[in-house]
Structures
1.
Amino acid sequence: MSNALRLAIIFTIAVLALAAPGNAHPDHSLVGGERAGPGEVHIAGMLDVRRDRIRLDGVSVSVNGLSAPVSVDGHFAANVPIAPYYRVDIGGEKVFAMVQTFGNAELRDEQCECLVIPPIELLARKKGRIELFFGGDSMAGRRYFKAASGKPAVLDRATLDRDLDALFTAMKPYIATSDLASINLESVVSEEQPGTPSPKKFVFYSPPELTNALRRAGIDHVALGNNHTADYGDEGVNTTIDALDAAGVAWSGAGMNIDEAERASRLKVNGKKLGIYSFVGWRGTWTPNQTASETKAGAAWGPRKRVERVTTRERRAGYTPIMHFHGNAEYGDRSSELSVPRFRAAIEQSAPVVIGHHPHVTHGLEIYRGGLIAHSLGNFLFDQDRPQTQVSYALKVWLERGKFLRAEAIPLNILDYRPVPAIGGMREASLRRLHWLSAEMGTVMARSGGHSVVWREREGFEAPDCRTPAQFKLGRFAPACLGENITHGRNIIPRGDFENARFGEATERFWATRNAAIDFRTSEDGEGYIALLPDSLSKSAYLYSRSYIRDIYATHFTWEGRIKLPRGAQVELMAKMQPEAGAKPTPSTRGVSLGTQQVGADGWQKLHFEFTRPEEGEGAARAFRIIMKIRFDDRTAAGERTIELDDLALIEWPNEAVQRDPANAWRWTHQRER
């Protein structure tokens, strides 16, 4: 098959993936309600009940805690105070409770001067149905206690229980609606280093108070079949198990010997018997390695035959088998040839769900023989600074009489090392990646409000048009139009719209400053932006990415955004290449100049820089940090000096071969004529 034909097929599937029953906007004539008053916004949406033919009597909707009356045809509306976020709660005895969170810019509709939520699909409560919640890689050590220079620590020993609970605040409402919640705990649990660390680069341990925080957050089970459970040998495995048992959190995938490691957690959920087990995909090259044996503690190793044996054992014992599997390459986009047969082996032996993790980035969903494989959920609670690891999703799965029925992906922003609902650019980045990578495996994702869903059976979808990339609007979310005379690009920093930069106590850590304070603000209409507060007029103010940007496929770039100044200034763009290993450290803001732009005090103005970086290999530049230096023209006069910035984007423009490779089709957010 030619690349062109492959691209056409994948594009068609991805277009189909963006449609769902009722995916059109609600009819504006039916939005209803009185015009919002000062400081309020009119927010409207509709409930899609066609799949299960649900009667809406007894179904309630609230927005930020305020009732939004539901009409007989499913439309709801309310006037609510303008806020950065709008949490929609849907409940009723006949339906599974739903929670979704939205921002302003992604919903704003000029036709009605209101916010319009795309239709949210409801699922009926029926006998034999249960709802499960799954999260990816999780830990609470290392940078949680010792943050990067200039940033406060997330966890303080003096207030540890309170701080740990705060890590789950944003997701607790989503977890609470589920019958069972399970995550991958990728860490030893111990008060202090429990023993000699394994001879590898990264080893983790989290405080024992974490296990009680997990329980308070609603986490019922953790998978231990991973490459960090045995970071401190037998002693570390022992302290981890003891802490989980003391907190009443079920676990599987590790043990003091191989029999214990391969034992499933057998749980009853609303009368349904589940057997949840967990494997790691490799043994480790060091001695002693990370997997359990007859005489050694460790994680359960999962070659195909063991996957088949344990899955069959649980099924024959009368338990619905559910597998966690820790495999695949870190930061890779797709499952490996080694992992896929193991995932599928569990489905072949009647497991309805397989949950993958380890890459720290998300992979697609696959419907295989009627079962669901989530190839990688990415991070859930983790302290990584790489931007691509902070675009993630959690997964809700519904089983019906032990069979997979439906899944719903909740886009996440790993903000301040904790999961929060993704909105704006971060939601788009999560959904775009999920839809495309699922489409490659033939899985048609649909949209429900701001989430993505897939059913065991997929039919009745209508293809929407593609779109010209522009500001993200949830109601217009669709694949980019591909054209012969078009150059395609990707925004590497989807968090630059600042819509998702602060959520409760969680605050963005990607951006750093020098000679200025940084303040994440909300405009009168509820949209986010940042303000730099220079120390003085006499010094240049710097804004830069705290992390080096590694996820690069090009050498040509555009830096763009909007800026508002109280007086004229020169804006200089610089790049600092990631140092070689062992190189002497240099100041964070010392880089190569990429160009300058003069900006006046004339309200919001555009920033635009075109630049190239040297190729390091395979058409891509070396990882670099982006730096913006702002120097006022008048450096002596007193007065206002606040600098406001919004919609910052770093767009890469790969070469033709990269653009036309179907494996990269999901990446493109921008386009321009050749």
2.
Amino acid sequence: MTIIGRPARLPGVTRRCTHLPRPEDTLQSPPSPHHPTRRHVVRAGAGAAAVLAVGACPAPATAAPTAAPGAPAAPRAAAPDLPLRADTTTQGDVLAGFRKDHVCLLLIHFHAPAKGRSWLGKLVPQLSTTDKVTRFNSDFSAARHLRNGVDPASMSASWVGVSLTHPGLSALAEKDPFPAVLAGSTAEAFREGAAGRAEELGDTGDSAPEAWLFGAGGEEVHAVLTLAADDPKSLAEAVGRHGRALDRAEAEVLFRQDGATLPGALRGHEHFGFLDAISQPGVRGFDAPDPVNGTGVRGKPGSRLIPAGEFVIGQERVGARPAGLPAWATGGSFTVVRRLAQDVAGWWEQAAECLAELKRSGAAPADATTAWLASRMVGRWPGGAPVATCPAAERVPLPGEDIDGMLDFREDPQGWTTPLFSHIRKSNPRAGLTTVPGRPPLPAATLDNRRIIRRGIPFGPPLRPGGGPGGHGGPAAGAGSPDDAPRGLLFISHQADLVEQFEFIAKRWVNNADFPPARHPLPGADPVIGSGSAATFECPSASGGRATTLTFRRHVRTEGTVYAFTPSLPTLRALAEGRLDTAIEVHPGTVLRPGDVLDAGAARLALESNGDLVLRDRDDRSLWSAGTSGAGAEAHFSADGELSVRTEAGAVSWSSKTAGHPGTRLLVRPTGDVVLLQGGTTLWRAAGATPAH
């Protein structure tokens, strides 16, 4: 299971920084009259004769991958085609993942910015980079494989990471980190912060910011310091050491959030009892490709490889879209931190109530257990096996098997096997999303720019034995605490765009009762983390299909949220010296399309609707033009340092004539110009009526 966020109302469409065609723009299309959905709507409890049939649980249709369980996903040394594994500038939790059993987050406020910068300068050498974390994780996995799945006790490491909020960046830099903010952009979301967007995210009622433990009211959170270790003693030592350093910097710890892997049979699971963080995206340039299909991860071909720029700013993005962000953001990632309280007993009790209603209506087998329905609410059995590939009962994966290798909702458009409201289907539709019932589903690649990387960990003790519905499919028995003990999930995600990734998933998919669209009655919100709504349980019938309406209440409550940014080490070093480069950076491989605007406040570079690449000032006066009106379809910035405008046929209609200079940076600067820089040399500059060559 993957907890994404809290319930939200469906928002209006907001202005985007880019103008690519989007599948969600057609999500509200009416049903096709040529493909009517045949089903009767039955209120649960009204009685019905049809019973959902389930077959035997199949074995995998294809041979299991040759990689043994626990084998490393890539060689210890980074391969030439996996350069991101050797990255010494990005922080290690973003792509590699700290993956520790014990974590502590310290939410910090700087009372003295100068001392805060000094603290940051001393912290930078201690930060855990991608290359270090990758090497350790690879070695650890290899050692674990040699020990037949047992963790090597002799191997341990402690990791450190830091993220900064918009108020934190502003305080340390002593200026606004953005030269301009476009409406609807991720910069706007970051500046407003999670509390400022609470109503849109559905954080109302007992999840409203007024009730949060952090992220709203009082002193602003400036930084999130992440400490991770293999054992409590090492973590306690790190917390003490960093706490003393913060005291010397006159920084205040506003909140401390601890997290730890659950014990015993619940190890690797979240509090509802389901294996967590199974389906993560692969990252191109970091994860080795599957040799058979090339689109998945080696050893896990069911995990799609996504361009790294969807997670780390400055890397290749889906559709070569511009990031439109300042240079300080290059090499970093936007980070969401949420404390989500889970009402474990209430959630399982609800599953039992809904199962009873399904049995009364004849929509569930007479011998179905609560775990049968709970697994359909999640989309997986507690051990992680997808219901889609194993509908009758849970199956233990074969050695080396990719548990999601066969997972695809393409052949289940009605949701008869995996309900349309199920958590994994609402948060990642894969290749099963149809914008209109009866039409072919969208290709999985269409949704690559909606993926996020998750780094969650539980907090609080498991539910005590007998304190929940463990006897009929609830949490496993073991050491635990009373029902009223605080428990839940510390949710952390990394993404390049807060609006188009995290917020989009939460608002348009997870908490939208009308997703997937054009269904009657509506599928309902996510029953694991959704807003609480009527939901439609569908099953086959003699007339083609039948829908039974259930009611799901929410059992996950937001207790705090922070929007932060995890910068690269070069950015942190500069910030420690009081420098923050706010020029808008255009990264190699970026393509500008008509309507794209890169706004640095005093200067805006745009490919206008007529095809002309134009630099304008804040009063919309033209400072420079490429003269490509009527002849420009796209503007390209190549890896060898050339900026060009091209026609629809691909012919070059204008060029900066700077090809042959790899490593060149393209910057739109708040000083009012656009430059191509290689090191300290200006190769090209646009600021007046005539560009300099």
3.
Amino acid sequence: MIARLTAYLGREKAHLIRSYLRWMAAASILQGAAFGVSVLVLRDLLDGSTAGAARWLAALGGLSIAYWLADYRGIRRGFDMAIELLTTLDQRIGDHIATLPLGWFTPANTSRLGQVLSTGVMDMLALPARQLTPLIRAAVTPATLLVVLVCVDPRLAAIAAGCMAAMGAVYWLSGRVGRRTDEAVDAAISESSDRIVEFAHAQPVLRTMDRAGAGRSLVEAALAEQHSRERRQLWWVIPPLLAGGVVMQIAFLAILTGLLSLATRAVDPATVITLVAVLPVANRLIAPLGDVANYAVGIRMARGEIDAIDGILAAEPLPEPAHPRVPEEPRIDVDRLVFGYGTGRTVIDEVSFEVPAGSLTAIVGPSGSGKSTLIRLLARFYDPAGGAVRIGGIDLRDMDGRTLHSLLAPAFQDSYLFSGTVEENVRIARPSASQADLDRAAELARLDDALADLPRGWATPVGEGGARLSGGQRQRVALARALLKEAPILLLDEATGSLDAENQSAVSETITGLKGRRTIVVIAHQLTTITAADRILFVEEGHIAESGTHAGLLAAGGRYAEHWRLLTTAASWRLTRE
């Protein structure tokens, strides 16, 4: 663990943890030495040598003061290290996630990231005071006292060393078993938590379908598995801990027995006096080791938090080019693109097409055909397994992130709204935008109608993730944000999916009106957007099955023509009275 904490701090700050360890080790050694000197004080008092006792008492006072100073410096260094560790981890995680591909930010990963930042990193602040410092004291102080015993009576030191070794073996075994059971219980708790959240989110559907108890079986199964693993954890962890307590009592009894045995067989009165003097500090050899198990549990839990932090830091970032290039025109070329999500199934297979600068390209096709994956590859959410995406003839991988993102303005179905006002969520695309620019973007995205209905207009808080807005309002905010950015390439994934028919038509007119001024790629089901496209790509099972203009594809009578027939039929559905 120390090596991992040192790696977090880096070379420039690693001296903090080394200084902390040195001071705490020094304090523990001084404490052990003080206990040893107290034996000599008591020995001389029992022997009637007050002058010798006074000398040793002075030494004890000096050691006590030195221990206090070293302990104080060690605790201060521990807090300095913890605060620096907290700051460094926050910065490292923040810097690292800024380099990760956008596709990494799935609900599972963002949930894990939130847990790490809210609890895992904060737990590092308490690690020195609650776990490391007591653990160092519990290990180093008895070891120092053992060295003193070697000087006092090697036979008694040998008995104590054997007892300490037996206790160490029991706690080592307890730690090994505890780590395995902790991992199993953590996995079960995570699964049951996911099932409970899923069950809560599914309540509107389950209740409206009169199936309120239908999802309960999955929750009950997850909770039963958690209960089973926790019981198994108790059976595996408690016996070693109880055994540790028993071994501690046996060890203390063994030391006392050894003391009495050596004292009764000693012929030299000075030896008897020395052994009796050892008796008051004999407990300091064993009692601290009994606390090691408690501290070890905290260390084990902290190791789990560190594993979670390492898991995030181990996520592979998108590689940045050593010599980034900047395209001169917003033309998109897709060349034999191949991509899968690591499941062994190819989602995009040998896809090639061109999007001329200033044109409107519509991607259509059945659900699950790979449309959203394809448009996310254009934004470099992921790097392809094969082929390339180029803008202005330059591979996306040959651009740095800042250059690429300056070229793109995306508005996807799951576009995130951060906790702030409507204006703050839109203005983030272009902080220098004037109020007239904001109003124009709102008008184009038909957000102006929604603003009129919101209680505070532009100043209305949207809540975390846009929870205070309707689906249609969130979508219009995301679209207004994309339009305000005025990037040369506009990527839209179902940009009008949550809008009513009137606003769908109006936004569709906005999109088609941008032809010639922006390069637009849109996943569309809106009929007017499709018919206005310069080129239509019909995607099916990860391939471009057909490509061409609306009129040309209809005349071909292929899969697009069938898809169009289904769209127009659905659009003409009406409720009538029989």
4.
Amino acid sequence: MMGWVSVALLAVPLLGALGLLAAPRALRPVLHVYGLVVSGVTLLLAVLMLVRFDYGDSRRAQFVVDVPWIRGLDLRFHLGVDGISLPLVALTALLTFLCFVYLGAGGGRGPGQLMRPKSGGGRPRAMVFTLLVLEVGMIGTFLALDLLLFFVFFEVVLVPMYFLIAIWGGAGRRAAAVKFILYTVLGSVVMLLGLLLVWAQTGTLDVLALEAAHGRGMTAGVQTLAFVAIGLGLAVKTPMWPLHTWLPDAHTEAPTVGSVLLAGVLLKMGTYGFARIAIPVLPHGAATVAPWLGAFAVVGIVYGALACLAQRDLKRMIAYSSIGHMGFVLLGFATLTTVGINGALFANVAHGLITGLLFFLAGAVKERYGTADMPSLGGGMLATMPRLGSVLTFAAIASLGLPGLAGFWGEMLALFGAYQPAAGLPRGLFLTFMVIGGLGAVLTAAYFLVMLSRVTHGPPAAPVSVVRLAPAGVAALGRTGDAQGADGGSAPPRRAGLRPRDIRGYELASWVPLIVLILLFGLWPKLLLSLTTPAVQLLLGVAS
């Protein structure tokens, strides 16, 4: 009955992107408002979905649309949400809207905003178009209930994210963008082979029918082969160690909004695929591969933490932290338990909120100082910019898993799931995984505390050089000369000895919703867990 909401969630950003092609000159003066309006309408539709969702039956697909797509191949345009996908749809709509708030609020001409000219390619209309197309692909991935439709939306996001990095990124943007596209396309090819194998064995691409069958019609060997193929494709996007090497470069070179959406949503598309497709459709394959998945997960947790301790660049450190956090998500999935998978799904949402906020903050730091190199920042941010330093401290302690904040629950539940994995899995091995994961959690606290000691604490080492926008035609040099800007191009000139400006209004507007939700889910985890638990029990074939 409410299926039109699912269609509208895709149609609004798509029509918004097409409108930019139809009337480019007429819309140029209001581009900063245009993106806000289109993404705002999409967010309102997501809120409507949250309001009208039947929380008493969250295991059932709702807002369903199921119409013929390609009749000759019996492919259908099948959309819908349940307790697993609904939070991710809402998260995607929220983060996209907040990116447009960051880019366009208050006229859009502030530092790092959409309408400020930047050498190296401002192209505001192209950026709005790219972000709206990206939103279509991200939301579509979480709505799709047909395997081929899922794959189409899964691939749609690659092109706009490639251009976000390649056009608006930093000095190494081209190499980072090429690395991103090569890794993800190769992973997708392997995943497509696995999806086609499922289709050949079962004769259907309908996700709901495949989930209900729980692997019937496929032998254990076929399920294992299909799980490995699909899992490899998903693991690249997650990213799982050792398939992660594209991620640090992509995050480091991407513009601020690109990093926010890459960490906040695109990584979730890989982990979502495990919950939506790989585990419920291929249960025997999942049980066979689970010990290996858990092993790669805990290696990623420890590797990510150790790599973070070695980083000097703030954005690169946050990027490596995502590898560790996604390791906890994969460990939760590997347990094949209601507790563990609930923890993985909770960590998915918490990571999107916290790391999205961290990348917003990293962009703000780089815009002010002209660099994200932590030793070069000189420390003392709490003295020079107390509000920015306080928000950075809050985001860091949320990411390290402090109880009472959203980052705690997902990691704790994933470790608890490893303590008592599903029947048939080697408990001794998973207890080892739990211990290693716990060590990784300690290392996570260590690298965030080291970062805070370098950036926010202590007295400023020297008079701060503040990034300022010089008048057109005026040349000036800061302490690093012709440095790279926060979002690509040359950094604006600097004038030394001035106190940097603290949080601006448009930054506050784009960060406060994330701070509120981090606190809300940290203090009231049942808000998410009561939504996901029935759906997780269904995908595991457990009676409610």
